Amino acid sequence: MIASIAIRPCTGALFVLVIAARFDAFAVGCVAVITMGLGTAAFNLTVATSGVAARRLAGLGARKHYGVQAISVMPHLTGGVMILAISIRMLLPYLH
């Protein structure tokens, strides 16, 4: 789940797409954005995995709070879907 949240494009990636489109290098901009997303996802996944591993080593992971986790996931998913929709909307004129 962390990788899917972290791979979404940030505002910097959207700026890269706009600049790449302006210089008629949209394909290169798309590759750059994908690379940025994968790098961010890899970093966040590493940090999250190390945090979970540290908590398990410390013996603090015995209690689960699934209700709080479910509530905190919704804003992340909503933001990710909104960014995806905006990105697709910006991409559509270049697909013709």
Q: How many domains, as an integer? A: 1
C-alpha Rg (nearest Å): 17 Å
**Terminal residue distance:** 33 Å
Taking pLDDT < 50 over at least 5 consecutive residues as the criterion, the unreliable ranges are: none
Strand content: under 5%
Query: Averaging pLDDT over every residue, what do you get?
Result: 80
Instruction: Give the number of helices.
Output: 4
Described by strand count, sense and barrel closure, the largest sheet is: none
Description:
It is a single chain. α2 (11-22) runs antiparallel to α3 (26-58). The protein is elongated and about 55 Å long. It is mainly alpha-helical and 96 residues long. It contains four helices and no strands. The chain has one domain.
Short description:
The protein has 96 residues and is mainly α. Helices cover 79% and strands 0% of the residues.
Summarize the helices and strands and which ones pair or pack.
Layout: H1 2-6, H2 11-22, H3 26-58, H4 66-91
Helix pairs in contact: 2-3
List keywords for this structure.
mainly alpha, 0% strand, 96 residues
